[in-house]
Amino acid sequence: MKRSLLKPMVIVLSLMTGLVSSAQTVRNPAEPHYGELAIELEEDLVLGSEKDDNYLFYRVWDIQADDQGNIYVLDSGAHRIQKYDKNGKYLCTLGRKGQGPGEFELPILLTFDKNGILYVGEMAKIHAFDPDGKFVGVTKIPFFYTNFCPDGEGNFAITGRITTEEAQNLGVLIIDSEGKIHKKIAEFPGLPVHETGTTVSHPYSPEIRLAATTDKGFVYGYNLEYKLYIAAWSGRPFMCVEKEEPAQVISRKEKNKILGDLVKNTKKAELGWSKSLIEKMANIPRHRPFFDRILVDDKGRIYVRRCRSVLEENAGMRFDIFGNDGHYLYTTGLPFVPACIKGGFMYNTTYSENTGEMKVIRYRIKNWDRIFSALD
């Protein structure tokens, strides 16, 4: 990237929350250097058919593509992963329902390491398959985790809940292939724990978002502050990316909407909790989270999805895009949250309420080369 083209930014050394090592801090202004980006999408490939079981999807939770353009669809409803070539031809099925080797109960996460090993995350397990689809092994996680990134050496950067008597704090840890914790990278405040041991989450709950930055390491962020922490696979931090961003105070109307939805849900579950107890357990923060998703493309560029108000009905999504050196490049709008951004394509799912049919769609980014050719 041509640094001379970018606005001046303050770069200092600072201590990151929960970390013991210093890291370079890149402080970005509120506005991106290149302004608003219009990403031009064109439907390129559609997968899904009720007439063929190999193309029938029940509940797709994740989609990934490998370096050859093969597409992997994690269908949690069918307890399997469907593999297709770059032209959409069915190749094979990985996994099935069960508790044995290579079998799933509730798979929800899909990712690759630098060696092409495919990892499937579910509840307290992470399954591994080689590039030929053969089951390699499973790592059992001794706590509730929310996301993970494999380093290609048998270890994982992982986000999970660190439970105490008072709260479930949020942590970033390094674990090995046996599920043993090697290092705690960071810890942030989570939700208070009810006397029953239960927490109540909602759209404004504190969360840590995590993604791999190609083969160099990983990026994570605590959504109640606009900071992105980038670390090597060892856990050593080397960059903290900040953006000048005012906090959006949560309105009474937003709070009532969240509490109203929680009350309805707890009534359906017949939990018998009062509204005052639910409000205490929800512990709605003073300001709205800054973001609720972090994605990274195959060039290491970081896409941060902005957190919307719970009152917004518009389906559009806003993203801030950062270069792999921490500079704030663009802001953009998309009609969906991509499951994967790779090789100039975005992947998404659609669902028809009328027919109940689910489809996987690959979109070609028509202006991909024009967007980033001057930056690479």
Protein architecture, described:
With 376 residues, the chain is mainly beta. It has a single domain, classed as TolB, C-terminal domain (Neuraminidase), CATH 2.120.10. 8% of the residues lie in helices and 44% in strands. The protein is built from 3 helices and 27 strands. The strands form 6 sheets. It has a 6-stranded mixed sheet with strand order 1-2-20-19-18-17, with no helix packed on it. It starts with 9 loop residues before the first strand and ends with a helix.
Provide a brief overview of the structure:
This protein is 8% helix and 44% strand. With 376 residues, the protein is mainly beta.
The CATH architecture classification is: 6 Propeller
Q: From the alpha-carbon coordinates, what is the Rg to the nearest angstrom?
A: 21 Å
Counted up, domains total 1
CATH superfamily: TolB, C-terminal domain
CATH topology: Neuraminidase
CATH classification class: Mainly Beta
**Biggest sheet features:** 6 strands, mixed
Briefly note the structural class of the backbone: mainly beta
